[in-house]
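User: I've been trying to design a sequence by hand for this structure and keep getting stuck. Would you show me what you'd pick, starting by listing the structure so we're on the same page?

Assistant: Good idea, let's start from the same input. This is the structure you sent:
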């Protein structure tokens, strides 16, 4: 049995680890905004548009699915990207009632200058771990989520402190 002194130390270490993750996510998001002038969400939407342009016309719904965010959230982000002249909305060539998204030259330049998002770095490192370790991390984090009574909250697979992130399924 763990004595109460060690139990307290262990719980403090766990809470510190959670707090460090939260702080790192916030710090990285602020860094991206300072360096790139974009939120994590804006950066991911730009990247999604770039990746999808070769596959045909890019729509809000397509970007929404690619970044796992609700269409309404993506629309607000795209409004900001358009105001910054990083993207343009154009009528579809196939159906003029549909609106398609294209990167501007400024948007392409911005993409080349963007730093790596925190989650991409994290996912790269996670994938380098043995599959059993990856599963242990997932299982432990899911237990922490349940312990914090957060298992009913929906969340996109994006590391950001931004409050308006919602799943594309909402």
């Amino acid at each position: 049995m763990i004595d109460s002194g060690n139990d307290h130390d262990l719980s403090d270490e766990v809470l510190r680890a959670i707090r460090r993750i939260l702080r790192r996510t916030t710090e990285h998001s602020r860094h991206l905004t300072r360096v790139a002038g974009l939120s994590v969400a804006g950066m991911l939407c730009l990247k999604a548009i770039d990746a999808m342009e070769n596959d045909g016309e890019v729509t809000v719904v397509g970007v929404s699915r690619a970044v796992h965010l609700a269409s309404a959230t993506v629309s607000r982000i795209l409004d900001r990207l358009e105001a910054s002249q990083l993207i343009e909305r154009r009528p579809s060539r196939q159906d003029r009632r549909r609106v398609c998204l294209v990167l501007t030259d400024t948007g392409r330049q911005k993409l080349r200058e963007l730093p790596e998002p925190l989650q991409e770095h994290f996912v790269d490192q996670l994938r380098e771990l043995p599959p059993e370790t990856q599963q242990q991390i997932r299982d432990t984090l899911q237990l922490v989520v349940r312990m914090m009574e957060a298992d009913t909250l929906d969340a996109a697979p994006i590391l950001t402190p931004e409050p308006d992130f919602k799943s594309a399924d909402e």
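That's my pick for every position. To get oriented when you compare it with your attempt: DSSP finds seven helices and two strands in the chain. The chain has a mean pLDDT of 86.
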